[in-house]
TrEMBL record:
One GO molecular-function entry: catalytic activity
Top-level taxon of the source organism: Bacteria
Pfam families found in the cross-reference section: ABM
Membrane-spanning residues: none
InterPro entries reported in the protein's UniProt record: ABM_dom, AI-2_Isomerase_LsrG, Dimeric_a/b-barrel
Domain ABM: 4-92
Alphabetized Gene3D superfamilies for the sequence: 3.30.70.100
Native organism taxonomy: Bacteria, Pseudomonadati, Pseudomonadota, Betaproteobacteria, Burkholderiales
Record protein name field: ABM domain-containing protein
């Protein structure tokens, strides 16, 4: 299997920006320690401060699946369920 990239976008509901930011920052270290993690970087949109974007690189789709099923991601999803207006995840394979 070959390396994949992920772009994950979360938009906070108005008034929940800082709670979501803290929760997102809290999953960075454990996610970087997940098997197969090559890069796991959190960004905040300069023009839309409610929008947070992860850029991730994983050794394989299996590594990403393991991350998605990890305890820290499950806990994160439960904690932020009421704080997110919209989320989107794109799984990408480099072609050039």
């Amino acid at each position: 299997m070959s390396e994949i990239a992920v772009v994950a976008i979360s938009i906070a509901k108005p008034g929940y920006e800082e709670q979501l930011r803290a929760a997102l920052e809290g999953i960075v270290a454990p996610s970087r320690a997940d098997r197969g993690a090559l890069q796991y970087d959190l960004h905040r949109d300069l023009r839309e401060p409610r929008r947070f974007v992860f850029y991730e690189r994983w050794e394989s789709e299996d590594a990403l699946a393991g991350h998605a099923q990890s305890a820290h991601i499950a806990a994160y999803r439960q904690a932020v369920a009421d704080w997110i207006e919209h989320s989107e995840i794109r799984v990408l394979r480099k072609i050039a």
